[in-house]
Amino acid sequence: MSSCNSCPSKDGCSKDNQKCMIENNPMNNIKNVIGVMSGKGGVGKSSISVMIAKQLRKAGYKVGILDADITGPSVPRLLGLKDKKATSNEQFLFPVESEDNIKVMSLNFLIEDENEPVIWRGAMISNAVKQFWTDVLWGELDYLIIDMPPGTGDVALTVMQNIPISGIIMVSIPQDLVSMIVSKAINMTKKMDIKVLGIIENMSYILCPDCNKKIKLFNGENVEQFLESSNLKLLGELPMTSSICNLSNNNYENKNDSLEELFNPIVDNMLSVLKEN
Ligand SMILES: Nc1ncnc2c1ncn2[C@@H]1O[C@H](COP(=O)(O)OP(=O)(O)OP(=O)(O)O)[C@@H](O)[C@H]1O
Questions:
Q1: What are the tens digits of pLDDT across the range 200-227?
Q2: Is residue 4 part of a domain?
């Protein structure tokens, strides 16, 4: 199964082949793997993963989403795929495809009832994530977006050790950005030698519906200083808005314009940082 040839990191890899823990599926050819991470839960990681995938797809790239948030998978619902099931043969698991041809694998596609909790020990969860990398027939992808579990625990570590991540996008809300919550996550990526492409500050402001003025709810003054001292780029700020909140209602196409306006610059920034690598 292990094959450097099918590894997205093969061109810039400095790993000792004997010590590398990453197994690659030779049937897959995935050019870039982007992890979307947050210091804690509920800050918009899944919504942002889905929107980045959609924008990349719109730009013509072949895109997949690996939902590594095993105990709280929300990607299927956000893409209108919550009633779908994945199929398999003796060798592979086949991803489910969204209407706009994004390939998705999530634990929700493998369990009977999405309302049942996944009561698994850490090792089982980690194994599921590893299998989503090794056993899923992703085929050829330009970008695989990984919706990481929140925080810096066991599964985040499994993802970083077992999947050749090209870069991480850190999602934060304003109050957390200059706190130890984000610093911990950033320090984890440093220890694992994985590049942070930048930070997305979600729920950063609201837009006045009458005058379109940006209203910042949190008066943090240290953000720029924090970014500079951590040598991190702000990929973008997102408002608290109903168009993001209602993503799971799947009338994405109707409010396409505002979402596209919000996410296009973020994706452009992400791609230019990736190119610099
Ligand atoms: N910018 C935003 N404006 C309004 N609502 C938002 C915004 N971003 C996220 N939300 C809402 O916040 C909730 C949490 O979002 P989401 O599930 O994307 O976060 P998460 O970090 O992936 O959560 P978890 O850690 O549980 O996986 C959802 O109800 C989502 O609709």
A1: 999 999 988 888 898 987 776 677 888 8
A2: no
With a cut of 0.95, is the ipTM above it? yes
Asked if residue 216 belongs to a known ligand binding site, the reply is: no
Measured CA to CA in angstroms, residue 165 lies from 15, 196, 211, 272 at distances of 13, 10, 42, 17
Tell me the torsion sign for CA atoms 126, 128, 129, 134.
positive
CA distances from 163 to 124, 160, 222, 229 (A): 17, 6, 34, 28
Q: For position 35, which CATH number holds? A: 3.40.50.300
Token readout for 125 is 């969860």
Chain centroid to Cα 198, Å, comes to 13
Query: Does some domain include residue 34?
Result: yes
The pair of three-digit structure tokens given for residue 256, joined into one six-digit string: 């396409």
Number of separate domains in the chain:
1
In a domain, 67, yes or no: yes
pLDDT at site 24: 87
Two tokens, residue 265: 């610059």
Confidence check: pLDDT of 256 > 60: no
Q: How far apart are CA 29 and CA 25, in angstroms?
A: 8
Helix, strand, coil percent content, the chain, rounded in steps of 5? 40, 20, 40
Domain enclosing residue 50, as ranges: 24-276
- 14 within domain boundaries: no
Q: Which of 36, 40, 46 to mutate to test the pocket of ligand 1 (most atoms within 8 A of CB)?
A: 46
Please work out whether the CB of residue 38 comes within 6 Å of at least one atom of ligand 1: yes
Specify which of 37-51, 235-249, 252-266 reaches the highest per-range mean pLDDT: 37-51
Task: Tell me which of 36, 54, 245, 248 to substitute to probe ligand 1's pocket, judged by most ligand atoms within 8 Å of the beta carbon.
Answer: 245
Q: Which amino acid is at 95?
A: P
**Using an 8 Å Cβ cutoff, are 148 and 36 in contact?**
yes
